[in-house]
């Protein structure tokens, strides 16, 4: 189907982008969704929309803040995650979403992100080194959000069914590269991947840097690649998204393995224009 509309992050936006988190949600193995952007087609809006949508699903979420501060991600989610705009904020307030600050002090348990994100928010931090200490901080945050999430699971039949999986979003793997070259960065990603078999790992990387490209090639079940328009930007279209499924982990039954769409970001949300499927 070809069309354009402001679509909610909860389901519509990712349906348009051909990503289905419930496609293989019962799999007893980690799943990897990679977002690969471009200097002229940044992914801030998509990472924030993913954060808001996964919190609103509802799903327990740990976000490793490498390139953007927690406050910025939550604020951006409120703008672009139409249909799930308060998902991240509400999850932070009840402890079902935690932020791991890759550049801050060692993990200390419950901590308020501050500046309006929500009192009593659970957050975590590490020493600024993509090694075992950062992985341990993420692991402890996963335990924290899982505990808080179970305590706040929906009880009303009208509320969405809670996901049994935990989502870990790594916002900017390339920014970790100066701290650890090549193999060490891949080892860090391997260790995060191995934390829990019921884990959805969302990795954000820059295609024109490529620090994590080999790991993504080997491990990603699905890749969303953001690209600038070949003819330059336009007022109503800012860039293109190509979604490629290497497995069926995030592919809904009957959907194409590769799809393309154009997007435009505004104060009203994100407008997605879907191109006809070809493969």
How would you explain this protein's 3D organization?
- By secondary structure, this protein is an alpha/beta fold.
- About 25% of the residues lie in helices and about 25% in strands.
- It has helices at about 10-15, 45-55, 70-80, 85-95, 130-150, 185-195, 215-220; strands at about 5, 30-35, 60-65, 95-100, 125, 165-170, 200-205, 220-225, 240-245, 260-265, 270-275.
- Strand 6, helix 6 (about 185-195) and strand 7 form a beta-alpha-beta unit.
- The two termini are about 15 Å apart.
Uncertain parts: 1-10, 105-129
Q: How would you classify the helix and strand content by structural class? A: alpha/beta
Q: How many separate helices?
A: 7
Overall 3D geometry?
globular
Describe the biggest sheet? 11 strands, mixed
Q: In which range does the helix fraction lie?
A: 25-40%
Distance between the termini: 14 Å
Question: Could you tell me the strand content as a percent range?
Answer: 15-25%
What's the arrangement of strands in the largest beta sheet?
1-11-10-9-8-2-7-6-3-4-5
Radius of gyration: 17 Å
Report the strand count: 11
Give the averaged pLDDT, no decimals.
80
- H/E series: EHEHEHHEEHEHEHEEEE
């Amino acid at each position: 189907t070809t069309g354009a509309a402001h679509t909610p992050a909860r389901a519509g936006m990712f349906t348009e982008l051909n990503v289905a988190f419930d496609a293989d949600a019962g799999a007893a193995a980690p799943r990897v969704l990679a977002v690969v952007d471009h200097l002229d087609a940044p992914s801030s809006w998509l990472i924030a929309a993913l954060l808001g949508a996964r919190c609103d699903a509802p799903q327990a979420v740990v976000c490793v803040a490498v390139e953007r501060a927690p406050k910025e991600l939550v604020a951006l989610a409120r703008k672009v995650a139409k249909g799930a705009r308060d998902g991240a904020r509400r999850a932070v307030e009840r402890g079902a979403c935690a932020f791991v600050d890759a550049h801050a002090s060692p993990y200390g348990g419950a901590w308020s992100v501050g500046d309006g994100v929500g009192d009593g928010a659970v957050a975590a931090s590490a020493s600024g080194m993509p090694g075992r200490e950062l992985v341990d901080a993420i692991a402890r945050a996963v335990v924290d959000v899982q505990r808080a999430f179970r305590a706040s699971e929906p009880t009303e039949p009208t509320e969405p069914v809670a996901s049994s999986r935990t989502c870990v979003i790594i916002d900017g793997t390339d920014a970790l590269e100066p701290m650890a070259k090549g193999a060490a960065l891949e080892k860090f990603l391997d260790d995060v991947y191995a934390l829990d078999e019921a884990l959805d790992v969302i990795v954000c990387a820059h295609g024109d840097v490529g620090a994590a490209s080999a790991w993504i090639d080997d491990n990603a079940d699905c890749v969303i690649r953001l690209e600038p328009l070949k003819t330059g930007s336009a007022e109503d279209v800012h860039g293109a998204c190509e979604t490629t499924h290497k497995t069926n982990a995030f592919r809904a039954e009957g959907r194409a393995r590769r799809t393309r769409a154009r997007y435009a970001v505004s104060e009203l949300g994100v407008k997605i224009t879907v191109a006809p499927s070809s493969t």
